[in-house]
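Researcher: Structure prediction, please.
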Amino acid sequence: MNTTPAGREHGGPIRVLIADDQTLFRRAVGALIDREDDMAVVGEASNGLEALETADASGPDVAILDLEMPVMDGARAAAILRERHPDLKIVMLTVHDENELLTEAVRAGADGYLLKDLEPAELLQMIRGVMVDQAPLSPRLVSGLLDQLRRGPGAQRIIVPGTDNTHGLSRRELEIMTLVAKGMSNREIATHLTITEGTVKNHVHNALRKLGMSNRSQAAAYLVRNGLNTRI
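Model: Predicted structure follows.
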């Protein structure tokens, strides 16, 4: 299934789905989002299964998923949503800074990972950022995620430019995707490398195609598992 978000087709507000088993938290986040002129809550869910059904019915642009929910957890829901709605942006919320479910969500292709103790303004900024291909990640989650990914399958393999385990990535593509894995936006990468943002977008697009991945987070997870700190 490939549902194009209706609101974005016509330049409307960012359509947001919120899935969390805590009703008070879910409603509070919804009220925060609905106060913004450029955002609107189009659905709520109390577990992962409801999130799937609601996403199918409402066609959101962004799904905010709690990691630990009954019936179906957020990581599993993220994996299914990624298959059904490839263009959907998925942001995970967690109360833990170390969580195996979060690592599963990374591998499922979620676009962002946030701790629930973030400030309201930060959440709004992250929602806007993920819509322009930024990868929101709470700083406290970085070390735990990288450690778990490095200890996961294939953790001892090292990426070497020009060899088979890069899937044909050029040195420049690998350089750019390594910066993507560090959470940098296309604009930040362009400034860092003194190239145009359009050039960065082209390299990211080509790298994702070569890796056979649908988004930046999946590619970042791949790079980390294969030796993110490799010198290029």
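Model: The two ends are 38 Å apart (CA to CA).
Researcher: Thanks, that helps.
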